[in-house]
Design goal:
This protein has 429 residues and is of the alpha+beta class. The chain is built from 14 helices and five strands.
Length: 429
């Protein structure tokens, strides 16, 4: 008997270094025009998303890929070998720590706990990165070290919260073979997305807001958030991810030009931090909307699955379930009404419709039966009666049900089952 072989690693994981490198260079292109600090550092979002999508046996490959990619990025931007090495080590450790924290804290049932886990992982990764980078900046006595560290934490958080959900969400996307969103949802989503683009441009374009008071321009920053939420609600998680990425790119581009609603502040470091906080809050808001909408959609899907199983169980056992509301007189039947009586769904909606289909010899007993049930009678003896079948004859039905009391003792609802018997042929006159 041979020894079991260790699972092989996937070398294609190294390709994650490409989007990591591109996002790093892109983040550096759209930096603050005064301090040259980044608004949002996107590479950690790529790294965390890659770790979450990859089996742990391949994490060493990812760690090596991101390490060398970070060395390339830092060498281009800072030009100091020692700093490039320190930043590469810091970035590698913080990203894998953030991903590990998210995996450990993510609940199995998902929901809002997923958002909390992602936020916790981002905070842990940002804290570790800040600690290591801050120590290095303090030792090198770099100017504005503390302020740079503060803005770096915000940039790191923004990168994970914006890009990690996008990476994982689009990686799990599969086009539907049939069905899909309705035309109305497509149109409404397109309108909301277009309004998001227009409102973001109006908010961050310098030529449009230069003649407006600062208070008005600041209030306009809330408008893109409304349309981003609408896009997420109509188009779902992928639409919400598209909305937050679009808003982020437009805001970063205009902010890199020295424009936007926060430029009136006297301190350029405050301008940088205000823009970062705005993008982080936007990412968190859309992430919550996506999570809550996804959880609701999953609950509806589970409910629909259970309904299908319930209908199959009713059909297999030759039964129907009923629910009678004594307050409005509504009568609901669950099961295959066509197979039972040859009737369309919704043919029996009240007791009058039920009595009209009942056999003439059974109507009096059936009327007394339901009068007793409305009064709270608890007789559990099955009631046998016959209902007309659309194909001819009478279907024998055994009624087993009872009233359910309300908090004040009155009858809230009458619920039970109909056991379906054979179809008796009509009497020949």
């Amino acid at each position: 008997m041979g020894t079991p072989q260790a699972p092989r690693r996937n070398p294609f994981c190294l390709l994650w270094a490409i989007p990591y490198l591109l996002c790093g260079l892109f983040s550096r292109l759209l930096n603050d025009p005064v301090s040259h600090a980044v608004f949002v550092w996107l590479p950690p979002g790529v790294a965390v998303g890659a770790y979450l999508l990859t089996q742990r046996r391949n994490w060493p490959l990812l760690l090596a890929a991101f390490f060398f990619a970070q060395i390339v990025i830092t060498s281009f931007t800072r030009g100091q070998p020692a700093t490039a090495l320190v930043f590469a080590i810091t970035a590698s450790l913080s990203s894998i720590t953030a991903a590990w924290t998210i995996q450990r804290l993510t609940p199995r049932d998902g929901g809002v706990g997923t958002v909390a886990a992602l936020l916790a992982g981002a905070v842990v990764g940002a804290a570790l990165s800040a600690l290591l980078n801050g120590s290095w900046l303090w030792m090198t006595q770099e100017a504005h070290a503390w302020v740079r560290l503060r803005t770096w934490v915000a940039a790191y958080l923004g990168g994970i919260l914006i890009l990690a959900p996008a990476v994982t969400g689009w990686a799990h996307f599969r086009p539907r073979r049939s069905g899909g969103p309705r035309m109305r949802d497509l149109v409404l989503g397109a309108v909301a997305y277009l309004a998001l683009i227009v409102s973001t441009f109006m908010t961050f374009d310098g030529d449009m807001i230069k003649n407006l008071p600062y208070v008005v321009t600041f209030e306009l920053t809330y408008l893109p958030l409304v349309f981003a939420v609408l896009t997420a609600l109509v188009w779902g998680p992928l639409g919400g991810t598209l909305a937050v990425i679009t808003l982020t790119l437009m805001a970063l581009y205009q902010s890199a030009q020295g424009e936007g609603p926060f430029v009136e502040a006297n301190d350029h470091w405050h301008v940088l931090l205000a823009t970062q906080v705005y993008l982080v809050v936007t990412a968190l808001l859309i992430l919550l909307v996506n999570t809550l909408r996804g959880a609701r959609a999953q609950e509806l899907e589970n409910a629909e699955q259970w309904r299908g199983r319930f209908d199959l169980a009713l059909a297999g056992s030759h039964q129907l379930m009923y629910r009678y509301n004594p307050f409005d007189g509504s009568f609901e039947l669950a099961g295959d009404l066509h197979d039972a009586f040859g009737l369309p769904t919704g043919a029996i909606t009240n007791l009058d419709a039920l009595l009209a289909l009942a056999h003439p010899d059974d109507r009096a007993r059936l009327t007394l039966h339901w009068a007793a049930r409305r009064a709270g009678g608890q007789d559990r003896t099955p009631l046998l009666f016959r209902l007309a079948h659309a194909g001819g004859g009478w279907r024998v039905v055994s009624d087993r049900g009872s009233p359910l009391p309300d908090f004040d003792g009155s009858v809230a609802v009458v619920a039970g089952m109909w056991r379906l018997g054979e179809v008796e042929q009509a009497d020949v006159q």
